[in-house]
Automatic annotation (TrEMBL):
Extent of the signal sequence: none
Organism, scientific name: Lupinus albus
UniProt protein name: Putative leucine-rich repeat domain, L domain-containing protein
Acidic residues: bias regions: 10-22
Top-level division of the source organism's lineage: Eukaryota
Region Disordered, residue ranges: 1-27
Keywords recorded for this protein, A-Z: Leucine-rich repeat, Repeat
PANTHER family recorded: LEUCINE-RICH REPEAT AND IQ DOMAIN-CONTAINING PROTEIN 1-RELATED, LEUCINE-RICH REPEAT-CONTAINING PROTEIN 9
Coiled coil segments of this chain: none
Pfam families, per database record: LRR_4
Source organism phylogeny: Eukaryota, Viridiplantae, Streptophyta, Embryophyta, Tracheophyta
Length: 317
């Protein structure tokens, strides 16, 4: 059965007469709601009882403008609500959406996660990046959550994560976090703490499912706590204060290793340091380290890593 669509920008009576009953519609013309400088919600949206996704990104919607959503019970089957890049200062009331899977309020002016306690525990993906949030709270009931994005906020502490037992991706880059606390979680596969205030790598030891770890632009001086991360494929510790390559010799699946912009003096000992992934590694970045100025730098690395495809910005066929 072909999905009908409702064009909310249609103004003429003739067009409205041609349109079928909007309550039977399952697909909204989302292009008419994105980047349109909308400052209010068209009440006709409330008639789309079978609507599954509503995207209102890149508009001028305020807290008052979005408030009617909380009373439009005909939309209770909504599964995805995107309010990214608007003018919200608080989490909207989404308690009527009992089947919500994706909720995105990134790029707003939200100062607190207060109100998330009312969101459905069916949520799979939550995006609150680029706001002004200072504390991780009211997320304990999201035991089905797979992705949590809280990058570019004002967070100082990793906390209240312990119930997110199905979490696979945690994005906390560009905050003010000083230490790692995964609250006992062991299922995370992708973790970003780029551009924080870390000085140590300790805290990842129990996260054995981890496949991608991003720690660039911190103040880390030693590679440690990595030997148990046996499933790691991508490790980014660029732009730190490292002087040597350590604790990754047993990582058999490592494919991408980013070490650029550190203080690694020599390539001596690198064979032992990456023994486990020597055959697997395809990409390595070491530029802007003292060792990158050594004689035959690229040739030495190509000899160490027989399957290398990229060294810094040089790509090999």
């Amino acid at each position: 059965m072909e999905k009908e669509r409702v064009d909310l920008n249609t103004e003429t009576e003739e067009a409205e007469e041609e349109e079928e009953d909007p309550s039977s519609s399952t697909l909204l013309d989302l292009t008419n709601l994105t980047t349109n400088r909308l400052s209010s919600l068209d009440p006709r949206i409330s008639h789309l009882s079978l609507l599954k996704k509503l995207s209102l990104r890149q508009n001028l919607i305020t807290d008052d403008a979005v408030s009617p959503l909380s009373s439009w019970t005909t939309l209770s089957a909504l599964e995805e609500l995107v309010l990214r890049d608007n003018q919200l200062k608080k989490i909207p009331d989404v308690r009527i959406f009992k089947q919500l899977l994706v909720f995105d309020v990134s790029f707003n002016e939200i100062t607190s996660l207060h109100g998330l306690c009312n969101a459905s525990n069916t949520l799979k993906e939550l995006y609150v990046s680029k706001n002004e949030v200072a504390k991780i709270e009211e997320i304990e009931h999201f035991d089905q959550l797979n992705i949590l994005e809280l990058g570019s906020n004002k967070l100082r502490v990793m906390e209240n994560l312990q119930n997110l037992t199905n979490l696979q991706e945690l994005w906390l880059g560009r905050n003010r976090i000083k230490s790692v606390n995964l609250c006992g979680l062991k299922c995370i596969k992708k973790l970003s703490l780029q551009s924080n205030r870390l000085t140590s790598m300790t805290g990842f030891e129990g996260c054995i499912a981890l496949e991608e770890l991003y720690l660039s632009h911190n103040g880390i001086s030693k590679m440690e706590g990595l030997s148990s991360l046996v499933n790691l494929r991508v490790l980014d510790v660029s732009s730190n204060k490292l002087t040597s390559i350590d604790d990754i010799q047993n990582l058999m699946h490592l494919e991408d290793l980013w070490l650029n912009d550190n203080q690694i003096e020599s390539l001596e000992g690198i064979v032992e340091s990456v023994a486990g992934s020597k055959e697997k590694l395809t990409t390595i970045y070491l530029e802007k380290n003292p060792c990158a100025k050594s004689l035959n730098y690229t040739a030495v690395l190509r000899e160490i890593f027989p399957n290398i495809e990229q060294i810094d910005s040089d790509v090999f066929s």
